[in-house]
């Protein structure tokens, strides 16, 4: 006896490509190949979707390319990093200490049996973690072990487990993550899935041969299925080889038959091997008269109206997709679903669903007949063309053949549905939105030791403006080192980006006292999505649109977009907040920092004891290594507390040669200019020092608490030997906290 041993869709559907599953029950071959050793089900679509972490998990076997979750096989456990941030104190207000914690882990995840060709993309909690080019941002190192028989232990695992206790996991493909940062994953190891390439190419024949070789099945012939390409197929649960082969059989419509103790696999679209005339039907011993053909037809109500094929779609990053085929006119109400854990294009799956439906209807007839012994060469899976008494031809596909003595064959067959195998179909693509790994990149940071910009900021502080040019920039951490970079202290967290850019041309000198309507400045913004806006002159006078260009604070009325991310600024106020000394010091490629209306500018309170000390600073992008951040050297001067230089100095001499010096003080406070009212002092008390200069040397210092001083003729003679026709002096306003302010140098 010989028979087919697999069915097309399974017993739930039945149909023309096979009848009963298990025609080899009781034979040694059936027990070896098809009888599972444990109670198990065949592969399912969800088997590879969720990452496990348990002993005894089966090791998946992959053919082609697929998406695998894997099993966590080693981990250090959460490693905590404690960071303390200190702000204020020592003249800077109340001291604040903030402690934060971050976590990382080293871990290894087993993928499948090796060897594999490689790992392409990796997803973490469904989001792209690593792209096909190997770009990733959350792990300091990522190593892929292909599962070769000569691979060595991973160094991180070996360091943790010891040389004697660390296996090399030869024959197992796995991935090691070193210093995997967990902040973006709720401080837990995320559910990873991996796009794994097992072979450069796979066919149904290669799967059959590998499985049957494992089972020790002799005389295997699968060569005729070698032309059936297999994009991807993975098995991740205990199952018999029969259960593993059934999804392939359902999708690609090949037959498997036991022929003289060996298995043969072949496509179901072969050509007939014989023609049987009507006179040779019903062969029988003398004395019996069986009918030429016994025909049984499945009722239409028992056939499927619709079949849905669920599959893994590569256009959807190997997520589940579904394609349906439906018979338009049918009394049936049966809607069936077929789970195919195979990588199939949408159109391929659609065509499979169409073929399944048509095969059920085209092959609903089952035929039994007896043939002469001359047809002994006919095997299960072969096709016969049978002629009836009226000369009509019927193509049948043999499912079972049994030798009857004396000298006849009992043949069971179904109506051939091979015509349906040529059906093609198209399906509308349903791709998932493309993902990319958005690297944080380097943070562009400007430490701004500026004059006081707002009254509420009156105190020792430093401004930090930071942003990133990369789309993956999510913030930065400001760190400071007081020992030349040996150790670092975390000072501030930045989660919003400042509006930064670069000046494309050079501002010419201009008066700081009137509107500069002749000059304009073109700037290129770091983030092209940032915008600048025009405002009224009244708004500018009220403080709007302040920015730093080089070392000069300016304000602009007009902002015109001239190219993507490029703006032209015009109608300017120059040298604002005491930066008039920078008006003539501009050069190409200067920094541009928007000071008002930018949420990414942070105020960092510092103790006055830090004034003048050279420190190293760095802004570390979140998700990057601190060592990769550029270092900035800065000696902070607390410029916000330094009084501005006086203006409008004048001198008057009397007949004796005494020199009376007068000036007008300025305030470092951003106070409005009101008529008939002095600007606020902005200091604890009013005090000045005037240095009398002889070249670069100071001959005398005069102290006063009024914006005026007297340099008597007697002091001039004592300092220079004679009354001076012209005196060069430097006038400083004093601060109780930082001492001398900026100097006004004048010759009177």
Poorly predicted residue ranges: 7-40, 88-93
User: What is the terminal separation in angstroms?
Assistant: 126 Å
Evaluate the radius of gyration.
43 Å
Range of strand content: 35-45%
Query: Any idea what the shape is?
Result: elongated
How confident is the prediction overall: mean pLDDT?
A: 85
E-strand count: 42
Which secondary-structure class do the elements indicate?
Answer: mainly beta
Number of helices: 7
What does this structure look like?
This is Phage tail protein. By secondary structure, this protein is mainly beta. The chain has six domains: 95 residues, no CATH class; 102 residues, no CATH class; 149 residues, no CATH class; 94 residues, Immunoglobulin-like; 99 residues; 101 residues, Immunoglobulins (Immunoglobulin-like, Sandwich). Helix content is 9%, strand content 40%. The chain is built from seven helices and 42 strands. The strands form ten sheets. Strands 1, 14, 15, 19, 20, 21 and 22 form a seven-stranded mixed β-sheet that branches. It has a six-stranded antiparallel beta barrel with strand order 27-28-31-30-29-32. A hairpin with a 2-residue loop joins strand 12 and strand 13. The protein is elongated. About 5% of the residues have low confidence.
